Amino acid sequence: MRPGKLNTLAILLATMCVAGISARAGTFQSITIDGNTSDWAGVPLAYTAPVSSSSAIQYENVYVANDANNLYIRFTLYSARPNAFANGYDNLFIDTDNNASTGFSTGGIGSEMLVQWGGGYQEASGVFNAGAINNLGWSIAGSPDSLGFELAISRNATYASDNSLVFANNTIAILLEGDTTGYAPVEFAPSTGGLVYAFATASVPEPSTVTMAGLGLLLFAGRFRLARKNSKANG
């Protein structure tokens, strides 16, 4: 193979690797928001944030999952955070169409949804608060001295402005943000661009080997009976 072709192949493989990192396939799993994270077993780690400013919430590990009804996010912290997300300094932004050129520009995404103080708000280009979000289904569990939290948002949430679905697209970008007490954003998870997540659907279980074996026996028995019938007719 010529050097030019080798270089082209290397660039193609590198591009594929980057794309695989930036776009994460979803995990279909139902989670109970109760502070017990045992039902997160099997959900892969989505992102690990570096240690950052102690003047805001310090995100560590982030996990994401969904079922037919909800989007679930779990995160751990480097240090305890009393009243996480029950204040105006811990924010969740979601780019609901995974398009940085639409929505409110923050942290490398274009956010159409903001969750602050446990309430949902629509966002638009150049507009931090463009109206309320209904049917948010917000639920969060953790404790003031906890290093881990889990939360849920309803996939049936709607914009109050026109009653359209917030999650009308299959692929979104998620950004966890932390502000100082002066409302200066200093913490982002991920650090830029958002965590791209594609909603998963429930998997259909494959036929068991027992079922396949049973089907094989039925087919064999049917052929055997047909062979006997033909033999008697010819005899």
How much is the radius of gyration in Å? 25 Å
Quote the distance from N terminus to C terminus: 69 Å
Number of domains: 2
Beta-strand percent range: 35-45%
**SSE succession:** HEEEEEEEEEEEEEEEEH
User: How many separate helices?
Assistant: 2
Identify the overall geometry.
globular
State the CATH topology of the largest domain.
Answer: Immunoglobulin-like
**What average pLDDT do the residues reach?**
84
| pLDDT < 50 runs, ≥5 residues | 1-22, 210-215, 217-221
Helix content: 10-25%
Number of strands: 16
Biggest sheet features: 9 strands, mixed
Structure classification:
alpha+beta
**CATH second-level architecture of the largest domain:** Sandwich
CATH class of the largest domain: Mainly Beta
Which key phrases capture this entry?
nine-stranded mixed β-sheet, alpha+beta, 2 helices, 35% strand, 235 residues, 2 domains, Immunoglobulin-like, five-stranded antiparallel β-sheet, disordered N terminus
